[in-house]
Write a structure and sequence with these properties.
Shape: elongated
Oligomer: single chain
Structural class: mainly alpha
Radius of gyration: 33 Å
Strand content: under 5%
Distance between the termini: 100 Å
């Protein structure tokens, strides 16, 4: 009996081991299969990553020639490895980041090398006993003071890497000079190899498929504004359960604003990198990059209100948005639509680098609807046929949409300020040609008035709706 029980137990253990082995084997196989797919997706999301990887490989290959060429190696020796290390450390994705790190490393190396050689010469004058004491004192004071400077936000943002290299280079030269008499030759070789490595990295980064941080910053800010407009475009239909065409694709647009909420760190780093870059493309020297932080901050504040609005669509805990007043629904829909059109016009103007003149009309309409909604909610007869619990969500949505309208107006003013600060780059919108104006006349979009004194009548031609065309009604009607 005992042997049978033992046999069954061993059989169960064997089956469990086979199951575990099969489970872990299948997981490992899935990971091996998924890894190439992840690599492919990573390259498809941004093909510049593949180009950047090839550029880094090319730069490392070029500085490695210092080891393979005997004349160069005889002049630099083992210090040639510092060129390879410099390329690996300095080479970044964008031109601004590479220039910033390269210049920081070069300046810090030359300053620290010069100061370290001076301290070494001064310590030699103090005698054999005073040499280590004086060097140790200067190492302590400079390391402590430079480390304290790294806590300043402005210095840390642009020169943190340079300060770190300064401490490292100064300590290596000043301390090693106590045992090594050839300190000047060592400092010269190290500075030369670092200069070669930094120059190689910057040259490859700038002249071979450059990635400009300024372009990325400009496009990302405009894209974030466009994402807010896409949300507001579909918010009214989804919120009030109107017809919602497009299904999952349109609902995906409602989630696009989420990336705007976490864009602060990325924008700040891109601004710091863009300030290192020279004139390129549409951006000239001393472009007001810092102003993009203001536009980005307003965009995020608007996105926070939009995130709260999104809670009324998907949240199962909050009170359902059951607005019985058709007037409130219409006003909210108009505010959302006009704000969406304004944001999209602003984003389009930023991408084209033109002054956003057409967005003002949508902002004025949305502000008018917001004022009308406030007056309607304050009217004394509102609560006669609507319960208080039903109107609370409506008031909340109306308040949030009013805030959104206010932030859209501030975003428009900030973009106008950016266009004024960089008036050379931002161009005015090109006027319509006579052919386009004639076309707009026929479609009822331009209504010129007769330039005569005294009273005159204005006839507005309104474009027919699709329903009227389908019913074969009159092609135009008078308003």
């Amino acid at each position: 009996m005992a042997s049978q029980v033992a046999g069954v137990k061993n059989t169960n253990e064997g089956e469990n081991d086979q199951k575990d082995h099969g489970f872990f084997g299948s997981r490992m196989k899935n990971k091996v299969v998924e890894f190439p797919m992840k690599l492919k997706k990573l390259g498809q999301d941004d093909p510049r990553r593949i180009v950047h990887s090839l550029k880094v490989g090319l730069a490392v290959l070029l500085v490695s020639m210092l080891y393979y060429c005997d004349p160069l190696y005889d002049g630099l020796g083992a210090s040639a490895m510092w060129a390879v290390l410099t390329v690996v450390v300095v080479f970044e994705f964008s031109v601004g980041a590479t220039l910033g790190r390269g210049l920081n490393r070069i300046l810090a190396t030359f300053l620290a090398g010069s100061l370290g050689f001076g301290i070494h010469h001064l310590a030699n004058l103090s005698g054999e006993k005073g040499h280590p004491i004086l060097v140790s004192l200067f190492v302590f004071l400079l390391a402590a003071s430079v480390t304290f400077l790294r806590f300043f936000p402005r210095i840390k943002a642009r020169y943190d890497y340079g300060l770190l290299i300064f401490i490292l280079t100064f300590c290596m030269i000043s301390v090693s000079g106590y045992r090594d008499e050839e300190i000047l030759e060592m400092a010269h070789k190290r500075a030369s190899t670092i200069l070669i490595g930094a120059f190689t990295a910057v040259s490859v980064c700038v002249f071979i498929c450059p990635v400009w941080a300024g372009d990325d910053l400009h496009n990302s800010v405009a894209t974030n504004i466009e994402k807010l407009g896409s949300f507001l475009e579909g918010f009214g239909n989804e919120c009030f359960k109107k017809s919602f065409k497009g299904g999952e694709s349109n609902r995906a647009l409602l989630k696009g604003y989420c990336s705007v909420l976490n864009s602060k760190q990325s924008e700040e780093s891109q601004v710091n990198f863009a300030r290192w870059e020279p004139r390129h493309g549409r951006f000239r020297f001393r472009h007001p990059w810092k102003h993009y932080l203001k536009i980005g901050s307003l965009t995020r504040q608007c996105a926070y209100r939009i995130d709260t609005l999104n809670g009324y669509i998907n949240s199962e805990i909050q009170t359902p948005l059951n607005i019985q007043s058709r007037k409130v629904q219409e006003l909210c829909m108009k505010m959302s639509t006009e704000s969406s059109e304004a944001l999209k016009e602003l984003a389009l103007a930023m991408k084209a680098m033109t002054r956003p003149t057409s967005a003002s009309a949508h902002i004025i309409k949305s502000r008018t609807e917001a004022t009308t909604l406030k007056s309607f909610l304050k009217s004394p007869g509102l609560g006669e046929d609507i319960l208080l619990l039903d109107i609370i969500p409506a008031v909340t949505v109306a308040s949030l949409l009013t805030d959104v309208v206010a932030y859209v107006e501030q975003i428009e003013k900030s973009i106008q300020e950016l266009a004024s600060l960089s008036h050379v780059q931002f161009k005015s919108a090109e006027p319509k040609t006579e052919q386009e104006q004639t076309k707009l006349h026929h479609h009822g979009m331009v209504h010129p008035c007769a330039e005569t004194e005294g009273p005159h009548h204005v006839i507005t031609i309104v474009q027919p709706s699709l329903k009227e065309i389908e019913n074969k009604q009159a092609p135009f009607r008078l308003a």
